[in-house]
Amino acid sequence: MKQLLAPVLLLLLVAGISLTAASQEPLKVFVLAGTSNMLGATAKIGDLPEELREPQKDILVYQKGDWMPLEAGKNLVGNEATFGQAMTKHLGQPIGILWTSVRYVASASPGPGINNIAKQSRDKGRPIEIAGMLLDVSFGDGLKEETAKIYGEKLVLWIDAARRDLGNDKLPIVMNRAIPPLPGTPHLELVRKAQDFVMLPNFRVFDCDDVSRGGDKVHFNTAGRLEMGRRFAAGMIELLKQDQ
After folding, report:
1. Which tens digit of pLDDT belongs to each residue from 105-144?
2. What's the rounded Cα separation, in Å, for the pair 229 and 226?
3. CA nearest 78: which of 234, 229, 213?
4. Residue 2 lies in a domain
5. Residues 6+ positions from 43 with CB-CB distance below 8 Å
6. Is residue 199 domain-resident?
7. What values do phi and psi take at 134, rounded to 5?
8. Partners of residue 134 on adjacent β-strands
């Protein structure tokens, strides 16, 4: 009997080790950095398709010190839903979402704050890996000529600082092109041109002039935000494939 039990116990031990290792697999997290268009302005739950009104168990967001499913009415604001759906399908595993507010390209790097969240999560038994960043930082810099003129230079410095602080000089970053100039914001065109000429590794800028916006012509409406999520995902998947 003892001779039969020994192999069984060994198998159970190996299985236990394997399960423990699997549970420690880092959660791939994508940082959503920007201002109101990245952080949920004008999105309305009532305008969401039915499938997005249910908790998205494979798209986790960090709130109040813990990871919880993305859910309309609690933390869902729009673009991260369609982005998350596309990324979980591409990666074949759950992903995490972190929001961080960045108003200008001259703003401080969000790296230290993100690293602090990563430590807190790891200490609670959920290690994470920052897998990429979505960036929407342009409108504020386009309000004044002096900031618009140095936008390209400052953007490169900001990306370099964020990557350095996060310990990944090849971190994939996808950015949307600034919206077209509006009455009172003529300098946005300088920002758009600067974005077109920024050449960095693992960095993409996509056009969103045709994406629907609300009445103020600045913020994307709910349908527009969902479309932005799809475009961010397409750009991120392209970068991840190149890095394989």
Report:
1. 999 999 999 999 999 999 999 999 999 999 999 999 999 9
2. 5
3. 229
4. no
5. 77, 78, 221, 222, 225
6. yes
7. -105, 135
8. 32, 174
